[in-house]
Structure formats: structure tokens, C-alpha cells
């Protein structure tokens, strides 16, 4: 009778959905059982079809529910800078960028920030944080560098571990991303990162390993890219390192729309397909299971990893939304301010230009000082500087601009403002420049040619759409106002002939969805410009790919060998009534996306007169330079140079007011060589979040003594970068070669003997520090543990923080090793005149390297040099020890 009753109860339970948080009905709801017992019971109750349904994303940012068992659709949200996901979960606090947090070198701040992220997610009932990102700042051109923690794997690891712990202690699953070597946005969907095993193990994997083994992260997201020819979502070598070598028990999810197979992805360890629903489906997996190519136990393991993590986090036992936490959270807003104050870096300060003392008149000038707050025919709100663009973009409650912050910080001063030059200057030209054909029609005659019939490098239209949406773009088959005049094919490969009103294109697939163009195509535009006044006419061309521009039959711009993002301009003299014949040729170089844009402006339209007039009237000028969210965003990378006009304007302003402070907003280094030796002060604000204006003003006034230091190196010119020549220069091959190996970032500058503009670990303060009394001692010979102690003294007149950095150098090794590697740091607060002893512990990991031939980490006994300093190039104390 008892068995009959139990069978009847189970049958009824299968028919009626249960309430997940109601009184325990099934063992998987029983909180007294272990996670393993609960998930095993759940797996036993789910049908095979229900298990498969779980393995692909649902409504974009949800896990698929199991309604029969009362399991809801758990929610996921970007991102690295606060609750994002394209506004689907409402407005939220916009925190400073991850790169800003890294610049603080403050592990305690990372922990507090992680705890506040957890509150933001819990207030909205969101289960998964799709962050942090820990890819490497390999090159300054990386447009997502602001989402990551810089160029050094040790610094990144030390900062993300407390952040992840705090997020998960707050009841939210953290998702470390993008696994692995997804360090560029150029062609991220199709490019293969060609990297040595040693570089992988020493540079690109350590932050992921630390997240797994030290922080206990419960979710990992793959990269879009291939690694050594195999997509990350089905890269058995990478996934075996994650799950077998490191013992990762959580779930491995794809980035949005980057799953490329069912059988390989399933068998090699991908657990969750996100952003698409094409491969981990009943249609694809049931036949493979029936044929024995994928076993049901493989499916069970994926369910175990996904729901096991959810059960362990309490998602099955309580509502995720914590109604005691307000969505508009003053504590979160305050944390955004605190983090911003610790993430702004003082790079130059001659003649004690800073802090600003009792100014009467301040001129605030520049494109990042006061971004637009309304989109209209002229302005665009995408030019944000509180953060970068793409999936990380938060819709903030408010944003304090640099202009507003300075006005509030100096209420007794008169503050003047002008933009001077807009970062939208060229985009407006590309949209609005007027051309005509030889027949007088608006636009240019365009001919689209197929260079080969190979279309293998082009992804399916559906996947291109999915990936474009994931990057925040839309795929348009045509431009408004453009009219096709016929298409076909001739012996020269001509596919389309049409009239294009402008040249302002970004193609994520075939132009105009014309597959006959293949993966290699050439476009020629021809038309005329009628000069409306006597002046210099400046032509601008921006492209991802190769191009050439002829003006009146003379080759004016030649980027025919470019495989990268190439930006050029040239001026020609015109008289009113003149006609200029323009011919532009573009070859796409298999770029994804392919971009080509052309426009022009009269030199007299580039008017700095108001900016110069205000600068002359002011006691000092704060010039807000840099990039913005329309330039730095996922799906494409960005130039190292500042947008057109900024360098010119800085040089002009210096002539009328030499007391000029440059405040940079950008997600990394920019080219400053034209003016760095002429300006007395430079501050790098990075992307400082919604409170950035207040934080910058606090730094300028001295209310906050700057303490941040660079988590990356700033080169003098792009050609100095260790990645130069092996970043975006081989795009047609669909490969990027990490030929620098382990010598990336400061390691590479040291190896090549190149002096950077500003070195890794550099940052100034309004006070000064002295280092003394270095002591190095072995505390455990067997475990190879070493204690390094030294004294720091604040020798200046102000209280402040110093970030002491400890580097290790293996004096003699069987394999090439860097001249120095960061292995410890401490952020120390000192009152003026105060001294403190700092103690840093080193273990065996600080002295090991990865031996690729032996495929293991090795320790070579011998003599090691210990270097302690204020940056990677400012070493204050050195000592040696034999281990």
C-alpha cells in the first residue's frame, strides 16, 4: 500500500507544477540535503528533452525554465561596469570601469565594489553577473580594454579574486570571461589567436585559474575567437585545462552567438549555449544521442554543472530579489564615487600645477568635458565617457560630467566652457558630405566587384545578425537614400552597380546581403565635389580594410596595404566654383565588420576661435580629451591616436595659455607625443562611472590626493608596442600571431630596451615617498616561502597612499625569462612624515615558470633578484636571495 501511495504521489507530482520556494515536495527542494544529492535527484526527475532545453539560452538573458518542476527562468545580466544588458533590467548605478578598479591597486576596494555589485543584482532579482572580464591588455588598440584589469596577470588575479568572492557571498553567480586569449575585437568571431602554450599558461590563463581555484567562481564564459585554430566553445585543450587540470565544477557558457557545432561543443565540454538557440537543441542533440555520438551522461553532466551551481547559491530556496535593497541605492552611488577617486591617475604635474588653488577663472574645453544628453540631428548620446560602449554600457541614474564637477568644486570661480572640437566631427561629415555624379545626380557611382568566389569566411546570415545584436549593432542591407541601378556579374567580377549618396558603411556580412561578392571584394566610388567657397578642402577616410583615394587623378591617400583600422586625411586648395574629381577604392581584407567612410570639411569650418578666446581669459585651462563610448566598444577596435582635431586644439591652446591641464577619458593609452612635453599636467581619468565628474574635480582641487597607478603601459607610439606587427596587421589570414610570447606589456618593453611614455605601475601623488630598510629572508625552505620587508616614509607635506610594487627576476634560467615580473604589491596609507613597515609574502609560484617541453610548471633553484619600487621602471630597493 505504501508503494502504491508513493507511486501515485510521484505521478501527481509529474502532472502538477510545483512552487520552487514552497514547502519541500521533492528531494531537490530539501535544503537539508547536500547540493550533490539535490542535483542528482533533480536530474533523475527531468526528462531528456527538459535537460536539453536547459542547455540553450532562453529569451536572450535567461536560463530555460523547467515549468513542470516549478523551476523558473533564472536571469543573467551584463556587466563589468554595473547592471547593463541593453537596458532590459532598467537603470542602475554606473560604476567606474574595471580598468579604473585595477588602477586603484586596492584589493579591499575590489571586495567592497563586488559586494555592491551583488546588491545591485539582488535588488533586481538577477541571478548571474556576466563579469568580470579578465582578458589581457595586450595592445592599446583593444576597444574592450576598459572592461578588463590591465596587462599583468598577477595584478588581474589579485584584484578579481576578492571581487568574485564578494559577488558570490552576496548571493549572485559571477561569470569570469572571455576564456581565453580573446584580447582583440578585430574579427573576434573568426580570428584565431596563435599563441604558445607557455604564453597561454603564464600570461593569458592565470586570472581564470585564480578565479576558479582561489575565488571559487561558478561560471565561465568562452571567447568568440579560435585559439590555435579551434573555436573556444569546442576547444578541448582549453576546456580540459579548465575542468580537469584546475578542477572547475561550475558551468561553461558561450558568449552570445558563438557556438558553432553540437557534437564537438557537447563532447568537449561546453555546457550552455547563449545568445543563440541553434545547436544545443532537441533537433540537433536527440539524433546525436540516438546514434551514440553524444551520451546522456554528457547531457546530465551539463545539467549537474548548471543547476548544481544554482542550488549551491540558494536560487532554489529563496527569491533572488531582495526587496530590502533599493534599486536607486545611495550606497552604490557612493561606492561609485569612492572607486572613481581611487582610479584616476596623475601622470604629469610640473611646477606644482596641481592641485588647483583658489582660481578665479577656469576654462573647461574639450569633447569629453560635457557629453550630449539628448540625441538629435546633430548630437548623439552614444558619446558617453562615464563608461565605454557595447554590452557593458549602463543606463545610469545620473551622470556628473567633468564640467559639472568642476563647477561644483570651485563655486567661487567663473567657469567658461566650449567643446572646441567634437568627437562626432568626422561621423557628421561621413553622414552629410555632398557628392554628385557626372550626370549631376546626388551621390557617387559605385561598382562592387567580387575578387574571389570564396565565401567560406562569411558566417551564416542568422549568426551574423545574432553577433551584431550582441555587439549592439544592427545589420542593414541598404542605406537610406541609396538607390540600386542594377546588379549582375561580368567577366571583371562586377556584381553591383549603384549610386551611393554617401560612403558611410559598416558591413557585418555581405554588402546589401549580396552573397555573390564572396569574402573578398573591391568597391570603387567615383564622383565630384563642387567647391562652395575658396578655402582648403580636407578629405577624411576611415576604414577597416585597404583603400586608395584619388583627387583629380592624383593618388592622395594610399592605404592599399592596410589590413587594419586606418584613418587618414588630406587637404587640397580650392576656389569657389572649382570641381574636384574624387575616386575611392576599397578592398575589404575579409574584415568583420568591414568599414569604409569618406567625407570632407572646409578648413574654415574647423574653428578654434571661441576655445582660444576663453583660454586667454582664464587663469587655467582644463582640456578634456580622449575617446568615448562611440569609439571604444565591442566588435571593433580603436585607433591609438586621438580623434581628429584634439591634438591641434591642444597645441593652439598652449600658445595662448600655457597653464593647461589635460584630463583624458579613455579605456587605455592614447598617443600624447605631439603635446606631452608642452603641457604642465596630465590626468588620466579612464572611464570613471556616473560620479566621474565629482571624482576628477576632487583630484584637481586636492580634496583627494591621487593614489592610482597605471595597470598598463602607455607607449610613445604604436610601433613601440610589443604587439605591433602582430595585432591587426594579418587580418586577411584570419590569424593573430602572439609572437612576443611571454614578453607582453612591460615585460616586452624591458626585453627590447624601449622607453615607454609612462611605464606600468606609474602614478604620481601630491606627496612624496621614500623606501628604505629592505630585508629578504626565507621563512620555509621546503615550501620555498620568502618574506620581503621594507619601510616606506611619507616625506611630503600631505597625507596619501603609496602603492609599493615587488618584482622578481630569475638571474639565470634554462629558458628566457622577463627582466622583472610583478609578484606582490601593497597599498599603504601614510600621514605626512609617517613611516610604516611593509611585509610581502612570496611562495613558490613567485619563482616558477611554465616549461612547454615538459608541459608543467617548474622551479629552478638558484639566485633570484628582488626589486621593490614605485613602478616597473622606478625601482627603489634591490636585493638577492638563493633558493
Automatic annotation (TrEMBL):
Residues 471-486 have a biased composition (Polar residues). Residues 471-490 are annotated as: Disordered. PROSITE patterns: PA14. Pfam families: Fn3-like (PF14310), Glyco_hydro_3 (PF00933), Glyco_hydro_3_C (PF01915), PA14 (PF07691). GO terms for molecular function: beta-glucosidase activity. Residues 475-615 form the PA14 domain. This is Glycoside hydrolase family 3 protein. The lineage of its organism: Bacteria, Pseudomonadati, Bacteroidota, Bacteroidia, Bacteroidales.
Amino acid at each position: 500500500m505504501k508503494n502504491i501511495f508513493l507511486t501515485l504521489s510521484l505521478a501527481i507530482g509529474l502532472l502538477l507544477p510545483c512552487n520552487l520556494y514552497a514547502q519541500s515536495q521533492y528531494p531537490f527542494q530539501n535544503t537539508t540535503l547536500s547540493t550533490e544529492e539535490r542535483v542528482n535527484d533533480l536530474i533523475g526527475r527531468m526528462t531528456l528533452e527538459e535537460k536539453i532545453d536547459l542547455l540553450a539560452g532562453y529569451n536572450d538573458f535567461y536560463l530555460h525554465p523547467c515549468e513542470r518542476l516549478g523551476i523558473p527562468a533564472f536571469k543573467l545580466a551584463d556587466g563589468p561596469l554595473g547592471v547593463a544588458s541593453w537596458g532590459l533590467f532598467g537603470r542602475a548605478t554606473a560604476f567606474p570601469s574595471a580598468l579604473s578598479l585595477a588602477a586603484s591597486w586596492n584589493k579591499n576596494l575590489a571586495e567592497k565594489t563586488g559586494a555592491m555589485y551583488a546588491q545591485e543584482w539582488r535588488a533586481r532579482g538577477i541571478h548571474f553577473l556576466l563579469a568580470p572580464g579578465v582578458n589581457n591588455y595586450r595592445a592599446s588598440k583593444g576597444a574592450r580594454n576598459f572592461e578588463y584589469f590591465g596587462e599583468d596577470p598577477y595584478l588581474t588575479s589579485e584584484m578579481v579574486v576578492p571581487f568574485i568572492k564578494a559577488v558570490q557571498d552576496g548571493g549572485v553567480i559571477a561569470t569570469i570571461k572571455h576564456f581565453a586569449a580573446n584580447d582583440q575585437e578585430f574579427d573576434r568571431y573568426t580570428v584565431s589567436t596563435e599563441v604558445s602554450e607557455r604564453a597561454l599558461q603564464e600570461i593569458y590563463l592565470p586570472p581564470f585559474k585564480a578565479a576558479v581555484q582561489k575565488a571559487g567562481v561558478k561560471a565561465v564564459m568562452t571567447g568568440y575567437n579560435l585559439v590555435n585554430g579551434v573555436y573556444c566553445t569546442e576547444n578541448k585543450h582549453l576546456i580540459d585545462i579548465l575542468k580537469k587540470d584546475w578542477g572547475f565544477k561550475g558551468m561553461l557558457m558561450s558568449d552570445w552567438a558563438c557556438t558553432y557545432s553540437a557534437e564537438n561543443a557537447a563532447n568537449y565540454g561546453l555546457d550552455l549555449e547563449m545568445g543563440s538557440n541553434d545547436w544545443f537543441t532537441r533537433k540537433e542533440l536527440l539524433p546525436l544521442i540516438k546514434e551514440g555520438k553524444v551520451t546522456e551522461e554528457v547531457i546530465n553532466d551539463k545539467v549537474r554543472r548548471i543547476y548544481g551551481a544554482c542550488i549551491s547559491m540558494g536560487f532554489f530556496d529563496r527569491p533572488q530579489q531582495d526587496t530590502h535593497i533599493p534599486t536607486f541605492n545611495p550606497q552604490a552611488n557612493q561606492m561609485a564615487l569612492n572607486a572613481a577617486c581611487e582610479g584616476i591617475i596623475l601622470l604629469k604635474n610640473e611646477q606644482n600645477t596641481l592641485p588647483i588653488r583658489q582660481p578665479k577663472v577656469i576654462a573647461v574645453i574639450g569633447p569629453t568635458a560635457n557629453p550630449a544628453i539628448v540625441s538629435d540631428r546633430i548630437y548623439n548620446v552614444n558619446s558617453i565617457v562615464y563608461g565605454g560602449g557595447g554590452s557593458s554600457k549602463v543606463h545610469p541614474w545620473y551622470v556628473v560630467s567633468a564640467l559639472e564637477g568642476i563647477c561644483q568644486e570651485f563655486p567661487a570661480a567663473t567657469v567658461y566652457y566650449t567643446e572646441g572640437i567634437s568627437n562626432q566631427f568626422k561621423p557628421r561629415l561621413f553622414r552629410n558630405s555632398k557628392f554628385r555624379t557626372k550626370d549631376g545626380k546626388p551621390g557617387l557611382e559605385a561598382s562592387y566587384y567580387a575578387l574571389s568566389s570564396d565565401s567560406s569566411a562569411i558566417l551564416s546570415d542568422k549568426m551574423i545578425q545574432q553577433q551584431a545584436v550582441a555587439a549592439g549593432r544592427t545589420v542593414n542591407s541598404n542605406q537610406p537614400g541609396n538607390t540600386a541601378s542594377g546588379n549582375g556579374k561580368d567577366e571583371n567580377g562586377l556584381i553591383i552597380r549603384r549610386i551611393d549618396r554617401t560612403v558611410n558603411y559598416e558591413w557585418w556580412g555581405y554588402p546589401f546581403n549580396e552573397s555573390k561578392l564572396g569574402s573578398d571584394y573591391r568597391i570603387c566610388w567615383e564622383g565630384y565635389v563642387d567647391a562652395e567657397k575658396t578655402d582648403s578642402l580636407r578629405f577624411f577616410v576611415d576604414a577597416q580594410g585597404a583603400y586608395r583615394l584619388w583627387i583629380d587623378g592624383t593618388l592622395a591617400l594610399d592605404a592599399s596595404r592596410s589590413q587594419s583600422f586606418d584613418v587618414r586625411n588630406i587637404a587640397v586648395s580650392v576656389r569657389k566654383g572649382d570641381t574636384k574629381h574624387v575616386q575611392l577604392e576599397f578592398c575589404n581584407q575579409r574584415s568583420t565588420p568591414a568599414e569604409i567612410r569618406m567625407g570632407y570639411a572646409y578648413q574654415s569650418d574647423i574653428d578654434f576661435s571661441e576655445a582660444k578666446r576663453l583660454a586667454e581669459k582664464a587663469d587655467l585651462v582644463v582640456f578634456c580629451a580622449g575617446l568615448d563610448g562611440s569609439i571604444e566598444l565591442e566588435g571593433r577596435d580603436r585607433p591609438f591616436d586621438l580623434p581628429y582635431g584634439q591634438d591641434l586644439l591642444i597645441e593652439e591652446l598652449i600658445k595662448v595659455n600655457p597653464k593647461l591641464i589635460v584630463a583624458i577619458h579613455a579605456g587605455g593609452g592614447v598617443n600624447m607625443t605631439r603635446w606631452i612635453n608642452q603641457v604642465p599636467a596630465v590626468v588620466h581619468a579612464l572611464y570613471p562611472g556616473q560620479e566621474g565628474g565629482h571624482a576628477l574635480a576632487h583630484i584637481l582641487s586636492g580634496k583627494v590626493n591621487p593614489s592610482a597607478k597605471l595597470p598598463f603601459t602607455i607607449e610613445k607610439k604604436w610601433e613601440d608596442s610589443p604587439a605591433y606587427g602582430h595585432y591587426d596587421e594579418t587580418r586577411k589570414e584570419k590569424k593573430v600571431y602572439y609572437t612576443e610570447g611571454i614578453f607582453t606589456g612591460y615585460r616586452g618593453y624591458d626585453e627590447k630596451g624601449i622607453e615607454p611614455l609612462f611605464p606600468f605601475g606609474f602614478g604620481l601623488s601630491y606627496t612624496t615617498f621614500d623606501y628604505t630598510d629592505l630585508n629578504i629572508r626565507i621563512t620555509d625552505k621546503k615550501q620555498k616561502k620568502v618574506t620581503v620587508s621594507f619601510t616606506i616614509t611619507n616625506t611630503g607635506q600631505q597625507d596619501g597612499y603609496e602603492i609599493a610594487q615587488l618584482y622578481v627576476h630569475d638571474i639565470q634560467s634554462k629558458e628566457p625569462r622577463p627582466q622583472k615580473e610583478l609578484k606582490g604589491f601593497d597599498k599603504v596609507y601614510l600621514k605626512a612624515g609617517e613611516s610604516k613597515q611593509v611585509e610581502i609574502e612570496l611562495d613558490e609560484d613567485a619563482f616558477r615558470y611554465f616549461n612547454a617541453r615538459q608541459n608543467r610548471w617548474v622551479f629552478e633553484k638558484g639566485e633570484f633578484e628582488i626589486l621593490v619600487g614605485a613602478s616597473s621602471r622606478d625601482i627603489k630597493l634591490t636585493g638577492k636571495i638563493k633558493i
